[in-house]
Amino acid sequence: xxxxxxxxxxxxxxxxxxxxxxxxxxxxxxxxxxxxxxxxxxxxxxxxxxxxxxxxxxxxxxxxxxxxxxxxxxxxxxxxxxxxxxxxxxxxxxxxxxxxxxxxxxxxxxxxxxxxxxxxxxxxxxxxxxxxxxxxxxxxxxxxxxxxxxxxxxxxxxxxxxxxxxxxxxxxxxxxxxxxxxxxxxxxxxxxxxxxxxxxxxxxxxxxxxxxxxxxxxxxxxxxxxxxxxxxxxxxxxxxxxxxxxxxxxxxxxxxxxxxxxxxxxxxxxxxxxxxxxxxxxxxxxxxxxxxxxxxxxxxxxxxxxxxxxxxxxxxxxxx
Length: 320
Fold this sequence. Notes:
By secondary structure, the chain is an alpha+beta fold. Helices cover 44% and strands 15% of the residues.
């Protein structure tokens, strides 16, 4: 359990691990640790209310040990674990299927295109435009009135594997909304950030289903750019090319910046990196293949959304 901001984030250790600072390991004296997991999950608000700190909240061992919970009898605990555990197992199985689908897409790209040395063109051949993001304001005010979901670099790894990430709600200038809102088959690429061992350049593909999950328009932060391709059929190919380049650590060669924050020279990548030019048939086939993969991913993600809703209902039923 996280004992520093945010207090109460939880997970179950399945391996032998070492704990870093800000994390505590909890174990029941008697009974199933999964019951303790669900008990704490249902009482996140209580854990947070017992924390202290004016800048960053934290909770001490003494504070944690003195929180009083209503605990079920052993037989009821087993019943609760059986129900909630079966829901979590289904969610995990769906996530494994999603991971396999994304892995299959990457394999499809490699086997079809990656080592083809026939006619080469610069990546810019496929690109219509690149558009900067926006960060706006946390609260509406002044001219910052357009409510948006803002995708950050930190959200990209989950988005690229079909998950939701946790993008925040922001408010931007209304005049910027039309030019910056994301459309299906655009590609988000991170252009600022990274670390000595992780380059910039993480990317995610925007789909119809992804945008439908949000009631407000979606943009990317100003640490990212949105890539618009000339045709939708190009987008799935370009996304796979950029993902492969990132995984091959190629983007380290296109970074600049000496102040600790690295910036990706996206224009140079698009102009200098040459790739195989697929035929119209190959492009259409790969687009349809990718579209089908993401449609399946969204199906399992929708299932998990409903399962999580069911899980919350049971948590409320069992723990009030």
